[in-house]
């Protein structure tokens, strides 16, 4: 029952709210708020302030809304990055950021990580933005001497 209550209380972000959050995250990256290992302390407050400037009556708060949205985006970005690194997998050529690969290959990907099974048929329009925001949060093997 507690899980069901959480679903009922879950807040749905509008497209405009997500756009402001994305824009502000990218601005923070440009302003030096992000290092190779993530954002500096205080960035979540900056995000909340930006949302409040744009939407003075918003009920969005750092906890639980902003931290949850940023965490979900980050998880989706890293999962997509993993999927797209597989040989023969890419976004389709329609420009709608949908995963394109053959069924056998997708079955193999899902076999390795069952949580990706619903990602193939979704559109991922924020992927390029996420790459700017989260792209260097983890050390790459190629980057190490």
Distance from first to last alpha carbon: 51 Å
Largest sheet: 2 strands, antiparallel
Report the helical percentage. Answer: 40-55%
Q: What percent of residues are in strands?
A: 5-15%
- Structural category is mainly alpha
Number of helices: 6
Biggest sheet, spatial arrangement of strands: 1-2
Shape: elongated
Helix/strand order, N-terminal first: HHEEHHEEHH
Q: Report the oligomer.
A: single chain
Radius of gyration: 17 Å
Ranges where pLDDT stays below 50 over 5 or more residues in a row are 139-145
Mean pLDDT level: 90
Provide an overview of this structure.
- The structure is a single chain.
- The chain has helices at residues 2-9, 15-30, 43-54, 62-84, 103-112, 127-134; strands at residues 34-35, 38-39, 90-91, 99-100.
- β3 (90-91) and β4 (99-100) form a beta hairpin.
- Helix content is 53%, strand content 6%.
- It has six helices and four strands.
- It has one domain (2-138).
- The longest helix is centred in the middle third of the chain and has 23 residues, at 62-84.
- Mean pLDDT is 90; it is low at 139-145.
- The radius of gyration is 17 Å and the shape is elongated.
- With 145 residues, it is mainly alpha-helical.
- Strands 1-2 form a two-stranded antiparallel sheet.
